[in-house]
Amino acid sequence: MEENNKTTVNEYEREPVPRQEWKGWKSFLGMYAGEHTAGTEFMIGPLFLTAGVSAFDLIVGLLVGNLLAVLSWRYICVPISTDVRLTLYYKLEKICGKSLVTLYNLANGILFCFLAGSMITVSATAVGIPFGMKMPGLNDTLPNGPLWIFIVIIIGAVISLVAARGYNSVSRFANIAAPWMVLVFIACGLVALQQLNVNSWEDFWATWGEGGEPFPGQPKFTFWHVMFFSWFCNATMHIGMADMSVFRYAKKNSSGWTTAAGMYIGHYVAWLCAALLYAVFLRSPGAVALLANGEAPPVSPGPMAYHAVGITGIFVVIVAGWTTANPTIYRAGLAFQAIMPKASTFAITLLAGGLATLAGIFPAFAMKLLGFVATYGFILSPIGAVIVFDHYLSNKLGLRPDYAEKSGISFNMAVMLAWGISMIFYYSISEINGIFLSFLTLPAWITCGVLFLVFSKLIQQNT
Prior knowledge:
Blueprint: H1 2-8, H2 26-35, H3 39-50, H4 55-84, H5 88-96, H6 98-127, H7 146-164, H8 167-195, H9 201-208, H10 223-232, H11 244-247, H12 259-281, H13 285-292, H14 301-309, H15 311-339, H16 345-361, H17 364-367, H18 369-393, H19 403-407, H20 413-433, H21 441-460
Helix pairs in contact: 2-8, 2-12, 3-6, 3-12, 4-10, 4-12, 5-6, 6-7, 6-14, 6-15, 6-16, 6-18, 7-15, 7-16, 8-12, 8-15, 12-14, 14-15, 15-16, 18-20, 18-21, 20-21
């Protein structure tokens, strides 16, 4: 199927998108609303509660952080996308060279697999309920038994096969699931409010308002943690410029505002609704007993949704995990195929699915999703600074933009040094001082861009 599509559909992988293919804002609205209302939301919302965040810090922090994310798409990613109208990968190849882009694709593909693995974990918590499966704990790293491993492998195999069938198979499933997923999250939130006996703002504040101490083994989150996390959890996509590949089709820069649908429906409403589901779960006898013993109750989306809305909750969690893992494995397969272009797309996607399934066996990727997502954005977003600084400043500073293409090199050392130094320096600061990585994403991004210009000046003046 995919090979036939290549003969009839031109994706303009190595040329600017022509004017007749440009699309209006409606083409992006549904895509962002659907993509950001899925399985990750069932994990991220509850994890905020485990970090002891207060209602004010969460509600206002998400409001501000998501606005900053939308502005990053609108004013950083989209203007360059509509100016050059190239995919991220082809634009990087022009600046960095093919060999360095291969390194980027490898990192991107592996991180995609880990993210997909965490969503396989999410679905497994729902599939395991009828079998009485023991759920992984909040601080668990290793699988807790053979039944868990078996269920994860079965789910991973099915999702991988769907992803390997190509984009049409992936998009068909997403288009079926996405429209009602938003309504389900809202319904779950309303049910949770009813079960918490919340009938007014005063009731809500009495239930959650002041927050509290984080659960054992979890960090304490404040307003600033919430704001920076919600701003940079998609850093790879906006300031990291990955969504150049999407917005190169936009007629106008104003299409960037459509990302607000994803941020405020998915990363605001859905996160809050999922957090409310977990608040209900924390009142269950098992969770109360664990807290009384000084143990952290598990964040298991399956039991959490089942406790609130019954069998429907099991089905919703399975589908939500699937709708995230499916396209993520597909994207990982594309990243790996860019490294091995002669390999079969079907086979390489199955390989990505196998890696994702292996990651899903280890619950740490899901249970530490806040930290993993922050790390993901921190690692890949500085490459976006290279594109932004090259686009706006190279000519003004007497440098040659798209240097790898114009000089015929396959590895631009200026990019590698800037990316590596900025990552290592700020990651070391994080580890030594215990600083949440989302706080350091913007400094790392700016530093990478500045170092890129400095090293480019040194290299280009000697060639």
